[in-house]
């Protein structure tokens, strides 16, 4: 039998040991409606806790639990539950909602975390854009330009890094295959810094090209670069020329 | 000797982020990362939950522990050697907690695991609105969509999301994880395109062997 006759100033229930609600206060109805069982009031994550602590074996209990959200989009309400057993069969249960401050702090923390995550996400977005731009830039740093039937010019741009050389390798190997090219002129005029790893990839690629039957000529090496090149093992089949003008004159005009 | 996870949980509950970091850093040199996530950090957080259930700590303590754990995870992740450039795979994963889901620590570890395997990862955090998740998925076009939920209330939302994602023309693999995947029978949702991931070990097995020897990544 249920009755809403109690004019107690807080949400209050009397229950039996099966959690069936026998009576409730008006405040209880305001907070939780009119459920048949006390268990219906609590959030799923709190049920085990309630079952464990609300039992006649423990004459008195005070515990913190969550109430089931009353509407969509509302977070579970944290409350303190006080239970005292009159005897083995009946108990009084009092619900006291937590101070608003906790909810407020929780909300603020969640918002802060959300904002950090958004910022993180935006940074990631930008990072990916930048990576794409760099990779595209790398791929475009060694265009394959056909000068004559059998000669192609490959001007290299910027610093010769390992990543960049790896990015252009595929395209160059393919282009040299597709077109009937016998000779490839690598122009170093626009090359900036060179590091060992980058040169390593480049010379490996040149060796591959050489094995595939192409003649390799390196043009426009600056004095500073000679030093680096000198320290590396350059395949002996590679020829060097001073300027593009010379090379064009020799291979394309004559 | 106190088990690792309980010691770690103590650091979390005391709000001692420095202690927690130091403790974890010692463990990193001894154990693989997966073990750290699955067998130390996860049990530590479960232990915090148990303490609450046993009336030993309050919700405020739990929040503090979560925040410290979150911080520690970010630190570990920042220290992980990033796989980038040539070695990064072209695979993309998008991970989020379904609408109203507030739990996110597990998902964060999943995101870190994907990153360690060289995937590009978008981790969108917990409680992502339905429409927002649709638009993100459509613009990012991930190979794997990872959904996380812990309470059974989220089941209708979860089903709605799965239904929607199954119709995407590039056939992403949909992974469902979170405590719900561990506790409830979700087999009815499982299909060629939908995989229930019980825990990080399970996820790792998928990385190594594919799905019951059948499909891996995006076959």
TrEMBL record, chain A:
It comes from the Bacteria. Residues 141-251 form the STAS domain. PROSITE patterns: STAS. This is STAS domain-containing protein. It comes from Halobacillus campisalis.
Automatic annotation (TrEMBL), chain B:
Keywords: Cobalt, Metal-binding. The keyword Transmembrane does not apply. Residues 1-88 form the B12-binding N-terminal domain. The keyword Metal-binding applies. CDD domains: B12-binding_like. Residues 90-219 form the B12-binding domain. This is B12-binding domain-containing protein. It comes from Halobacillus campisalis.
